[in-house]
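REQUEST FORM: STRUCTURE PREDICTION
Request ID: SP-0412
Submitted by: Lab K.M.
Chain count: 1
Length (residues): 113
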Amino acid sequence: MDFYAIDNCVEILKADGVSKESRCDGMLHFDNIIIFVELKMRGSSGWLVKARTQLTITLGKFQLDNNLTDFDKIEAYACNGLKPFANQGNNTELQKFKDDTGLIMYAQQDISL
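STATUS: Completed
RESULT:
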């Protein structure tokens, strides 16, 4: 399994060609499986919105250079090392990610980092 750091390592620019886009922390690659990961340490609301945005931007850039059908599985994980209050907005964010990318995003809370 290989880990590729993305945040602060891979430059993704906004449409203006100057400003940097927010991007996820990294990507795991094993055989023909790709897993995008965003790690958070926030107990407040809004962490999942930010993570979804970062994952969506990174995946969009990845799709420009790669054909997703070349992979057996592509997953995205938004992980939070703290235990934020779960709210019903999480389901909305998970659905928005699926609508935007066609993929499923998993929200992992209270993980050990």
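NOTES: The chain has one domain: 2-109.
Reviewed by: T.R.
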